[in-house]
Design goal:
Elements lengths: L1 H12 L4 H4 L13 E10 L2 H6 L6 E7 L5 E9 L2 E11 L6 E2 L6 E8 L4 E10 L2 E10 L6 H13 L7 E3 L12
Length: 181
């Protein structure tokens, strides 16, 4: 669960790289990524994710853009043990569209698809115990994405070599929110 939680926020960081990576978001205003996001779908090759994916529920994240383009990301992640809240700072690496968080591992992320306003699909990787773990996430401003966006997420997941067993559309939850922070 920790791997899933720590990886969730990194993906949001990559929304800033949309202007560099996604021609459709060329005019993206960084202030558009600020605020609340729902993590509504995941795909991962992490063993801990695969073992616990059926227990996972929709998480929330809030992003604030800091000076020099760094990001402060706050999370509320429901777990069987209760609501886990955390916060992390992500820094630009100098590579366009790449961010790094030194907290609990070396993590990088890249935007795969976004409209710059309502959703983003982010591919992230991190090193853990000598292995490189990968995760694809679907973020939305609402607790639901259109069938077209959901289908696009699943298509991108398969293109990144995730099997159907590695893909999880997360159920809604109301018991764990950043609004209480």
């Amino acid at each position: 669960m920790r791997t899933v939680g720590l990886s969730l926020g990194l993906a949001l960081l990559c929304l800033l790289c949309a202007e560099a990576e996604d021609p459709g978001a060329a005019g993206l205003d960084k202030s558009q990524i600020e605020g609340k996001w729902y993590i509504i779908a995941l795909a991962s090759d992490s063993e801990s994710y695969l073992q616990k994916k059926d227990e996972l529920k929709m998480a929330t994240a809030t992003i604030a853009v800091l000076g020099e383009g760094d990001l402060k990301v706050s999370f509320a992640i429901p777990t069987p043990e209760g609501c886990k809240k955390s916060e992390a700072i992500y820094k630009q690496t100098g590579v366009p569209g790449e961010y790094h968080s030194p907290e609990r591992g070396n993590k990088t992320a890249q935007v795969v698809d976004t409209d710059g306003k309502t959703y983003a699909v982010i591919f992230a990787s991190r090193e853990k115990d000598g292995k490189t773990l990968h995760m694809l996430r679907l973020y939305s401003r609402t607790q639901e994405a259109s069938p077209k966006i959901t289908a696009q997420f699943k298509k991108l997941a398969r293109e990144k070599s995730f099997t159907d067993e590695m893909i999880k559309m997360l159920p809604r939850q109301e018991e764990c929110s950043l609004d209480d922070v």
